[in-house]
């Protein structure tokens, strides 16, 4: 598999997009996932991203999108979010990416007012529509498991059930290792996603709350998960997902640390198949 990163690691620290992408290439990443807004991205920003990634030999793999309204009980809200996600699919195709990384929402009002089955079925319906559109663009949809109590897809079993209900070749799963730990899902359970998973996120956490820390800063035991992922034979990417650095002025060092540790873990487990680390102090 390739080693990538979501470029929001730099953006959330105030680093402009082009500079962030150049750092990502210099550090040694094989590829990048682009965090942006497909509804408002300008032609100039698109050109800057494409030109920089091409010059830096940095393929774009995925575009994350959070679309909580895909399970809203109001028809116009769902329709808007479907249209917005289609814009992301269009942008992914324009960037030559492989997938959009789709985050669905949470059950409303503690599952007490609106039937959970209705909310589930709205998600299946909208994802099938998006799957059809994605297929016309040769793009996949990777669904993210969120470990929060009311998240629609909050454990491996629910992810597998949802993909089965969608029954669409383009609607697949993302594996987020720290999310699995927070959801109390062990590596042995990943076999349930055989043939369904196409993308991986890696980060660390304290075992209690969502963290997205560089590997090694929390309590996650990565090796068993990475071995289980290797057994799935995914032709895809392990993308580092980082939240805010405690010192934004040292975001470069924060990303370099995450890269070094992730590259080491992937080497130890025989998971990485691309270029080795380079240009690091």
Task: Tell me what you see in this structure.
The protein has 281 residues and is of the alpha/beta class. The chain contains 9 helices and 8 strands. It has helices at 8-11, 17-27, 43-55, 75-95, 116-136, 156-166, 177-182, 222-231, 251-268; strands at residues 2-5, 32-33, 60-66, 99-103, 140-143, 171-176, 197-202, 237-240. The protein has an 8-stranded parallel beta sheet with strand order 1-8-7-6-5-4-3-2. Strand 4 (99-103), helix 5 and strand 5 (140-143) form a beta-alpha-beta unit.
Lay out the secondary structure:
Layout: E1 2-5, H1 8-11, H2 17-27, E2 32-33, H3 43-55, E3 60-66, H4 75-95, E4 99-103, H5 116-136, E5 140-143, H6 156-166, E6 171-176, H7 177-182, E7 197-202, H8 222-231, E8 237-240, H9 251-268
Parallel strand pairs: 1-8, 2-3, 3-4, 4-5, 5-6, 6-7, 7-8
- Sequence stretches where pLDDT stays below 50 over 5 or more residues: 276-281
Global mean pLDDT: 95
Taken from the alpha-carbon principal axes, the silhouette is globular
How far apart are the first and last residues' alpha carbons, in Å? 25 Å
Structural class: alpha/beta
CATH class: Alpha Beta
Helix and strand run: EHHEHEHEHEHEHEHEH
The CATH topology name reads TIM Barrel
Oligomer: single chain
CATH superfamily: Divalent-metal-dependent TIM barrel enzymes
CATH architecture title: Alpha-Beta Barrel
Strand content: 5-15%
């Amino acid at each position: 598999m390739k080693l990538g990163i979501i470029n929001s690691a730099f953006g959330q620290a105030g680093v402009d997009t082009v500079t962030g992408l150049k750092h990502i290439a210099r550090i040694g990443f094989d590829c990048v996932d682009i965090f942006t807004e497909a509804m408002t991205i300008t032609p100039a920003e698109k050109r800057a991203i494409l030109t920089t990634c091409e010059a830096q030999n940095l393929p774009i793999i995925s575009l994350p999108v959070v679309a909580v309204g895909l399970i809203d009980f109001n028809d116009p809200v769902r329709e808007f979010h479907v249209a917005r996600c289609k814009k992301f699919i269009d942008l992914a195709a324009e960037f030559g990416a492989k997938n959009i990384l789709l985050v669905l929402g949470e059950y409303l009002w503690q599952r007490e007012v609106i039937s959970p089955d209705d909310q589930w079925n709205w998600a299946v319906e909208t994802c099938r529509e998006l799957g059809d559109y994605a297929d016309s663009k040769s793009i996949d949809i990777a669904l993210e498991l969120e470990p929060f109590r009311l998240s629609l897809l909050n454990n491996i079993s629910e992810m597998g059930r949802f993909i089965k209900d969608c029954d669409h070749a383009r609607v697949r799963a993302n594996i987020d290792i720290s999310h699995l730990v927070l959801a109390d899902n062990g590596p042995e359970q990943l076999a349930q996603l055989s043939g369904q998973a196409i993308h991986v996120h890696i980060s660390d956490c304290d075992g209690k709350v969502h963290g997205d820390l560089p590997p090694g800063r929390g309590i996650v035991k990565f090796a068993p998960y990475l071995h289980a992922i290797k057994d799935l034979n995914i032709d895809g990417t392990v993308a580092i997902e980082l939240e805010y650095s405690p010192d934004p002025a040292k975001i470069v060092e924060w990303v370099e640390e995450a890269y070094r540790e992730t590259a080491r873990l992937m080497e130890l487990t025989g998971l990485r198949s691309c270029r080795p680390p380079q240009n690091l102090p």
